[in-house]
């Protein structure tokens, strides 16, 4: 079968099972769009801004576990993908970005819309490549998907010049294998390390599991929960590890870290063993590293060798696929009850109840999320942006199924909430997606509400509107002598009218008693809905371990009466 | 994790794909993670389409361990090995252009002969000396020639190889899987 480069891209996408891609055309990539119209099996979602293409592909990938695909043209199209690609890299999300490039003879001449996009994305991709021959296109796409989805997943960018896409018709041969001699895929860990880890776990009096994104990526949630249950080890999740274990599981303590549950941070301080699974002891988790878990030994399992012993010196560090290694480890774990340790944590939870919501006359953002999650009963997918609303969602939303909490963790990308929610919903068409937005982030990407409308996406946008960049505002209050420079909005748009302009339902909520009804109405209305929750503007985010500090310096909300 | 272990010089060798952009990827990784390369030498290897790189890196065990792991993580890098503590041969080549006068020329030639170095160009007021050897030997010659006035010097960077039959990469001791 003789095909052009563009047709080979489409055939290769189908071979890799990519039936959805997010993109926006332009001159250099137009030949690919010309071919796409002959491939109706590949659904193309036209976005309004390329950053939405990358972030929607990211949300799609996180919600489905499949590789997300985005397409952009050369130059500004490709550079607009950059923030989305960097987010995917930081959070280990499988993404393939296909960019058009200027024709080969024009490369290096500063031609119109020419950017060295492989150069630009070099430090923010797992791998990237510039494909200079039509005969290499199929291998490049095959390798890109393989790299993106295996090992520690990540984004791969494939840059293809316009004349390669147009190219002379070339025989399409689907490669039977990858051509990556330097790429290793890991499985099990050495038996002696597994035995050493099992011994530490069996001897521990105060063990904690810290469950990260790797547990979800590796589909190891079942085995992780089995480990926790067998030895009755409490589970703390990282921000990206939320939803690996149901929120109401008796061993699930929720999130720890900078804005994690106070009792979790205190438990970590007392623990004698931390079992880090598919996580990297990031600074938002540990605070000041020298003061983190001072009484604990560390068992660490991760698929990325460079993460083991990077931030924390482990007692036993194992490099391998989490599911495989947990499979080795589980039979060696002795049943246990850890009754005293669990009682101690229960006591900490009573003394430091940061999972509860304060009673107030005003509309608190935490209240909104508590009621929202009560109405949805933890079903569906929650996507967030970055900031206070994100942390409150992590603290107060409930989850039942894996991969139902989608958030930008490592890069902390504001504006993620709109396109990622769209992508997650396209990937899970039978699921309602709640996009929990900040009024700041929402305005960064709200142009792609149009894309959600066009695709009849069941995305409900819940804006926790405090008319400010709330987290920045709080940092200024605490550490910059209340100098609120550039963190307050004086002219936010009317988001209900924005909804109206897009032809969708908009609901404004200003009182507590309106919350449940608004959420229910949004769920009952077909297609996208914007709910503008006007929340208390200066509500602080707690607990809070200031940057570079330890649990000793943790700020907590003063004692309060909780809501029913 | 930044315990101050002893900083010392490590020699790493890596087998990499001989493709456009690979050197950039390696150099970019060093820059972005704040690692320092004391020297880097790149050339073709015994295997077709593969190049061999020799790095000299200053750092403690933690830093150099991270260098090796981060290098190995690059898709185009096939194998990395820290051969510092292996039995190895190392060589560096230097070209040194030194000022000469009719009075100093004889003494310089004597020094060159003592070092078994070569004079590869002679002009009326200068000569170019080529020396190959271990880093210390090159340093020693440089020190002896410095008083005469060095006009230009170019060092190739260290290349290193494990002694005996092994190819220095088979153990995979620094590839992070052990």
Number of domains of chain B: 2
- Helix share bin of chain B: 25-40%
Give me the CATH architecture of the largest domain in chain A, please.
3-Layer(aba) Sandwich
Largest sheet of chain A: 6 strands, parallel
Which strand order does the major sheet of chain A show? 3-2-4-5-7-6
Topology-level CATH name of the largest domain in chain A: Rossmann fold
C-alpha Rg of chain A, in Å?
A: 24 Å
CATH class of the largest domain in chain A: Alpha Beta
> For the CA atoms, what is the radius of gyration of chain B?
19 Å
Outline of chain A: globular
What is the chain-wise order of helices and strands of chain B?
EHEEHEEHEEHEE
Strand content of chain A: 15-25%
What is the number of beta strands of chain B? 9
CATH superfamily of the largest domain in chain B: ACT domain
**Largest interface, Cβ cutoff 8 Å:** A-B, 25 and 27 residues
Number of structurally distinct domains of chain A? 3
Strand content of chain B: 35-45%
Description:
The complex is a heterodimer of chains A (564) and B (178). With 564 residues, chain A is an alpha/beta fold. Chain A has three domains: 170 residues, 3-Layer(aba) Sandwich (Rossmann fold), CATH 3.40.50.970; 161 residues, Rossmann fold; 183 residues, Thiamin diphosphate (ThDP)-binding fold, Pyr/PP domains (Rossmann fold, 3-Layer(aba) Sandwich). Chain A is built from 23 helices and 20 strands. In chain A, the strands form four sheets. In chain A, strands 3-2-4-5-7-6 form a six-stranded parallel beta sheet, with helices on both faces. In chain A, α17 links the parallel β15 and β16. In chain A, α1 crosses α2, α16 crosses α17 and α16 crosses α23. Chain A is globular. The N and C termini of chain A lie far apart (67 Å). The mean pLDDT of chain A is 97. Chain B has 178 residues and is of the alpha+beta class. Chain B has two domains: 80 residues, ACT domain (Alpha-Beta Plaits, 2-Layer Sandwich); 71 residues, Alpha-Beta Plaits, CATH 3.30.70. Chain B is 25% helix and 39% strand. Chain B has four helices and nine strands. In chain B, the strands form two sheets. In chain B, strands 5, 6, 7, 8 and 9 form a five-stranded antiparallel beta sheet that branches. In chain B, strands 2-3-1-4 form a four-stranded antiparallel beta sheet, covered by helices on one side. In chain B, a hairpin with a 3-residue loop joins β6 and β7. Chain B is elongated. The two termini of chain B are 20 Å apart. The C terminus of chain B is likely disordered. Classes of the chains: A alpha/beta (564), B alpha+beta (178). Chains A and B meet through loops of A and α1, α2 and β4 of B.
């Amino acid at each position: 079968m003789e095909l052009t480069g563009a047709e080979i891209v489409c055939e290769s996408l189908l071979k890799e099972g990519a039936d959805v891609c997010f993109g926006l055309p332009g001159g250099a990539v137009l030949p690919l769009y010309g071919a796409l119209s002959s491939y109706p099996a590949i659904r193309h979602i036209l976005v309004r801004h390329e950053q939405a293409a990358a972030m929607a592909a990211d949300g799609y990938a996180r919600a489905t576990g499949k590789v997300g695909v985005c397409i952009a043209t050369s130059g500004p199209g490709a550079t607009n993908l950059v923030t989305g690609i960097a987010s995917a890299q930081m959070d280990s999300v499988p993404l393939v970005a296909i960019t058009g490039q200027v024709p080969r003879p024009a490369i290096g001449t500063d031609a119109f819309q020419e950017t060295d996009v492989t150069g630009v994305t070099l430090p923010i991709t797992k791998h990237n490549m510039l494909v200079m021959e039509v005969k290499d296109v199929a291998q490049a796409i095959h390798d890109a998907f393989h790299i993106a989805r295996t090992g520690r997943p990540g984004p791969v960018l494939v840059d293809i010049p316009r004349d390669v896409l147009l190219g002379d018709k070339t025989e399409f041969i689907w490669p039977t294998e990858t051509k990556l001699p330097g790429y290793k895929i890991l499985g099990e860990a050495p038996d002696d390390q597994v035995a050493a880890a099992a011994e530490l776990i069996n001897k521990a009096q105060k063990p904690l599991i810290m469950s990260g994104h790797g547990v979800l990526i590796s589909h190891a949630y079942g085995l992780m929960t089995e480990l926790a249950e067998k030895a009755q080890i409490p589970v703390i999740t990282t921000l990206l590890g939320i939803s690996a274990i149901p929120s109401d599981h008796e061993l699930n303590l929720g999130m720890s870290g900078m804005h994690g549950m106070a009792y979790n941070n205190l438990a970590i301080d007392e623990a004698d063993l931390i079992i880090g699974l598919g996580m990297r002891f990031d600074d938002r988790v540990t605070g000041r590293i020298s003061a983190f878990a001072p009484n604990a030994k560390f068992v660490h399992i991760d698929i990325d060798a460079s993460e083991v012993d990077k931030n924390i010196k482990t007692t036993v560090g194992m490099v391998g696929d989490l599911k495989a290694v947990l499979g080795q480890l589980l039979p060696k774990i002795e049943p246990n009850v850890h009754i005293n340790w669990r009682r101690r944590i229960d006591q900490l939870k009573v003394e430091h109840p940061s999972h509860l919501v304060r009673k107030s006359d005003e509309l608190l953002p935490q209240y909104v999320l508590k009621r929202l999650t009560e109405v949805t009963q933890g079903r569906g997918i929650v996507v967030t942006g970055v900031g206070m609303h994100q942390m409150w969602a992590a603290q107060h939303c409930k989850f039942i199924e894996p991969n139902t909490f989608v958030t930008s963790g490592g890069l902390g990308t504001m504006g993620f909430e709109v396109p990622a929610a769209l992508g997650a919903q396209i990937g899970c068409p039978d699921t309602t997606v709640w996009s929990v937005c900040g009024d700041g982030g929402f305005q960064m990407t709200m142009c792609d509400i149009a894309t959600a409308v066009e695709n009849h996406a069941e995305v409900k946008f819940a804006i926790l509107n405090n008319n400010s960049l709330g987290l920045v505002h709080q940092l200024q209050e605490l550490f910059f002598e209340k100098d609120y420079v550039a963190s307050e909005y004086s002219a936010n748009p009317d988001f209900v009218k924005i909804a109206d302009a897009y032809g969708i339902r908009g609901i404004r909520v200003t009182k507590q008693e309106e919350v449940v009804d608004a959420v229910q109405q949004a769920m009952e209305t077909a297609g996208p809905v914007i709910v503008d929750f006007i929340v208390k503007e200066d509500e602080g985010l707690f607990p809070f371990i200031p940057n570079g500090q330890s649990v000793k310096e943790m700020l907590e909300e003063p004692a309060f009466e909780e809501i029913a | 994790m930044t315990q101050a272990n002893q900083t010392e010089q490590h020699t790493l060798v890596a087998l990499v794909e001989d493709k456009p952009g690979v050197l950039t990827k390696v150099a970019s990784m060093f820059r972005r993670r704040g690692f320092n390369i004391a020297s880097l030498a790149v050339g073709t290897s015994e295997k077709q389409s593969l190049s061999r790189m020799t790095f000299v890196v200053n750092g403690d065990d933690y830093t150099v361990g991270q260098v090796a792991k981060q290098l190995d993580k690059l898709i185009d890098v096939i194998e990395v090995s820290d051969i510092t503590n292996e039995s190895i041969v190392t060589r560096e080549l230097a070209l040194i252009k030194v000022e000469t006068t009719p009075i100093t020329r004889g003494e310089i030639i004597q020094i060159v002969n003592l070092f078994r170095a070569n004079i590869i160009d002679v002009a009326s007021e200068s000569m170019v000396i080529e020396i190959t050897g271990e880093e210390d030997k090159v340093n020693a010659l440089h020190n002896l020639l410095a008083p005469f006035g060095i006009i230009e010097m170019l060092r190739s960077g260290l290349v290193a190889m494990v002694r005996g039959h092994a190819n220095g990469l088979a153990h995979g001791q620094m590839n992070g899987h052990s």
